[in-house]
């Protein structure tokens, strides 16, 4: 052993008056002295002190941890009791802990004084508890994305559980108009509940999110859910075709093994005639961000029924196909909640059918993020070109359906 390491060991023993447990002593030299673990390493280092005839018998609690490690078995039993009581289903876990701030300060003092670059006590506690629980529960420790985080609080003696969410991807079709995708808080009470909203706190009694999430929350025994959609359609617009992709985040699920086929059937029965879902599958957390980021890269297909201000000649309808690159300033109807800027989007395909002298049906395939109602009306020249501009008459979208959203 290098003389300078031995000198540090002796000085730590002197500063602590011998009151340092073998785990804390071993941890202090875990990067400089080889050994199978901090406990055995600490015993080895203490023997070196004894050979130097400078042994100071340990007479009270450890200077650093206050003999905290003696309580590990008790805290592990409490963890197991909590898991049995709360009946949480999980396949992997992670341990965290809280210790007295004085312990951390004393440890930091020793490390700084002797220039020791090693892990802190909390990491060792987490590792030791994690190893024992992994053996007893037959569960793996997972650092990146654990199902369950267990916080062992040595200050209060309590065990806290943090159940991480599950994520389910699916596609929804909205079969009727008048339902928003997610909850709109009442404009008067801001969601608190008032006479205007019949004390529901909502502008609309039902949402796509609520129709889907209610059964999913029950199936997972969760506390709530959050809806992440790949874009959204207006309230008065149907979402048809194969549907719009979304991820449902279920919060604090005590059940993680869910029969998604049965859940899909349950949701479709509950929301029959309003919303229909398909292709349910479990996904990772990152998927919710991916579908939102993909919204700009999608292409969408719309069917729009258009009312014109004047009768038009069929011969000029072909000019609608000249609309390719569209520059849209933020529409007036959403300017209160969207940044005022000009967005450039592409129309990749447009087909038309004349319904009568003043009515058209348009099938528009376009880049995601194009405002179709404004593409038709022109939105007081904020959208250029537009159906209204090209046909030389006022044009208004009276009915709009999304036929396809491809991501």
Condensed summary:
The chain has 407 residues and is α+β, with helices and mostly antiparallel strands. It has four domains: 3-51; 68-162, THUMP superfamily (THUMP fold), CATH 3.30.2300.10; 166-295, Alpha-Beta Plaits, CATH 3.30.70.2510; 298-406, Alpha-Beta Plaits, CATH 3.30.70.
Question: What does this protein look like?
Answer:
The chain has helices at about 5-15, 20-30, 40-50, 70-85, 100-115, 120-135, 210-220, 260-270, 285-295, 370-375, 385-390; strands at about 90-100, 140, 150-155, 160-165, 165-175, 225-230, 240-250, 275-285, 300-310, 325-330, 340-355, 360-365, 385, 395-405. By secondary structure, the chain is of the alpha+beta class. It has 4 domains: about 5-50; about 70-160, THUMP fold (2-Layer Sandwich), CATH 3.30.2300; about 165-295, Alpha-Beta Plaits, CATH 3.30.70.2510; about 300-405, Alpha-Beta Plaits. Strands 5, 6, 7, 8, 9, 10, 11, 12, 13 and 14 form a 10-stranded mixed beta sheet that branches. Strands 2-1-3-4 form a 4-stranded mixed beta sheet. Helix 2 (about 20-30) crosses helix 3 (about 40-50). The model has no long low-confidence stretch (mean pLDDT about 95).
